[in-house]
Every structure is written in structure tokens, then in C-alpha cells.
Amino acid sequence: MTIDRRADIVSAARAQLVEQDPHGISVRAVAARAGVGASTLRHYFPSQKDLHHAVLATFFDETVADLRIADPLIPAAERLRECLEQFVPPEITSDSLRLAVSTFLGPAAVPGADEIWGFYADHARGRIRAWLTLLATEGALNEADVERHARLLMAIADGLAIGRMAGAERPTLEQEYLVIADAVAAVLG
């Protein structure tokens, strides 16, 4: 075990989720896999929900990074646009989006799917809020507008994802990127 027990526990829980049990994380199994007692696990993660969210965050953080958002040598609009484009990756197809929606929101949704969907939505908005807060400290926008703009940008990203599921009129990647650029211009304009 490394010095960072919390990271070891999250790693063990993630491995269990991926390898063994896609429907849940067993606290005892995670503790054993991490080489800690259940009480140590509970010290770092008082509830199972806390542990679930820590694991989900690792998946989110692999797909949505901060990229160059903190580099003041690059124009703020360019940095924010690059970060937001991660919400519409080219490899995500209409079929995969339909599957995700039916898995998480449809009548055959898996148990706990609404919690996962909610976590990702909150985490995504939080990430956008963090980007905007950083840009506000640089004077790119008013700090009082950060939350409102985070919700606007999240709604646009969500709308673009839904648009990918549309029929023949679905937007191209270039069109999606133009919408993001327009949104960034409106927020930072």
C-alpha cells in the first residue's frame, strides 16, 4: 500500500467495478483489495455514496480534462472553447448516445442510474464552473455571472449531445464546434 490510502481505496473500488461487479461496489471487498480495514475505508469514505462518487470522478476526469485552461498566454476564449469541445468528442456516435440515454433514463434503466447521471451532470457543471471561475480571476468575465454561464454552457453541451441523436439533420462536428465557439463568445464577449 502506498502512503495515499485514499487513492489506493479508489483504485481498488474502480478495479472491482470494472472487473467484477458492474452493479455495485462491496465495501468489504474494496477494503480487502486495498489492503485496509473496513474502518479505514469508512474514515476516508463515510458513506458508500462517497466512495461511488470518488470512483465516478476518476472516469469523468479521464474524459474531461483542464487542458490549457490555466495558461494565461493563450486567449481565454480559445482555452474555454477547447475545454468545452471535450463534451462533444468525435468518437461518440448517435447510437452510443441512444444507448446511454436508455441505460440511464429509459424504462429499462439500471438501478442507481439516476444517481450516476446526476453525479456526472453535477460534476460536469462543476468543472465548467471551475474553468469560468479561473477565467473570472483573469478578468475574462464577471465573477457574479459564473454560475449562470456554467448552466448555460452545460445546457449547450447537453443540447449538442441530444442533437447528435437527431435524424438526418444531425449537426456535423464542425457545426457543433461553431455552436460552442458562439456560446463562448456570448459568455466572454
Short description:
The chain is mostly helical and 189 residues long. The chain has helices spanning 5-19, 27-34, 38-44, 48-63, 76-85, 94-105, 113-137, 146-164, 173-188.
Task: Give a description of the structure.
α1 packs across α2, α5 packs antiparallel against α7 and α8 runs antiparallel to α9. The protein is globular and about 55 Å long. It has 189 residues and is an all-alpha fold. It folds into 2 domains: 56 residues, Homeodomain-like (Arc Repressor Mutant, subunit A, Orthogonal Bundle); 123 residues, no CATH class. It comes from Mycetocola tolaasinivorans. One of its GO terms (molecular function) is DNA-binding transcription factor activity. This is TetR family transcriptional regulator. Keywords: DNA-binding, Repressor, Transcription, Transcription regulation.
Short descriptors:
single chain, 189 residues, mainly alpha, Arc Repressor Mutant, subunit A, 68% helix
Counted up, domains total: 2
Rounded average pLDDT: 89
Largest sheet: none
Large-scale geometry: globular
